[in-house]
Amino acid sequence: MRRRAIAILVFLVLGIAVLVMLTQCRRGSGKPTIATLTYVNEASSGWRITLANTSGGEPRVVRIPPLGEVRVELAPGAYVVSQVLIDIQGQTLDKRQTQVELKGGRDYRWRLLTLLSRRPMEAAP
Q1: Are 44 and 117 in contact (CB under 8 A)?
Q2: DSSP code at position 68
Q3: DSSP designation for 72
Q4: Taking the mean position of all CA atoms in its chain, how far away is CA 3?
Q5: Distance of alpha carbon 97 from alpha carbon 53, whole angstroms
Q6: pLDDT in tens, 8-39
Q7: Dihedral, CA of residue 9, residue 11, residue 14 and residue 18, to nearest 10
Q8: Is the pTM of this model over 0.90?
Q9: How far apart are CA 28 and CA 48, in angstroms?
Q10: Would strands 107-112 and 35-41 be described as parallel, antiparallel, or unpaired?
Q11: In a 10 Å sphere around its CB, with 0-12 CB exposed, 13-18 middle and 19+ buried, how is residue 75 labelled?
Q12: Where do the DSSP E strands lie in the chain?
């Protein structure tokens, strides 16, 4: 009878340990590892975007074609974002810079416009 009680106790302890380990494996670190940023270009010119993480590392350069859409996956954190509007000949038309904080597990959508932008579905005047 005593052996049986010990065996049942051992199985219960092992079962609880396995459940705890499985729960921890499913949770992982609990922190999402990427932020997704989708650029939607509504201009008839292209853009060159540079994303520099303020904590260091190699900046990420993304080119968005006219009326194009590009999806970028980045590590969460603070970024300095430089946007350069480029004409058909590759000349810089405009530059702007901003700083953003990207959170892991979030999807961001960033529309790129100019004063002369028009959506593809709109008729020209």
Answers
A1: yes
A2: -
A3: E
A4: 56
A5: 13
A6: 654 544 556 555 555 554 445 566 689 999 99
A7: -130
A8: no
A9: 36
A10: parallel
A11: middle
A12: 35-41, 46-53, 60-64, 69-74, 77-86, 92-102, 107-112
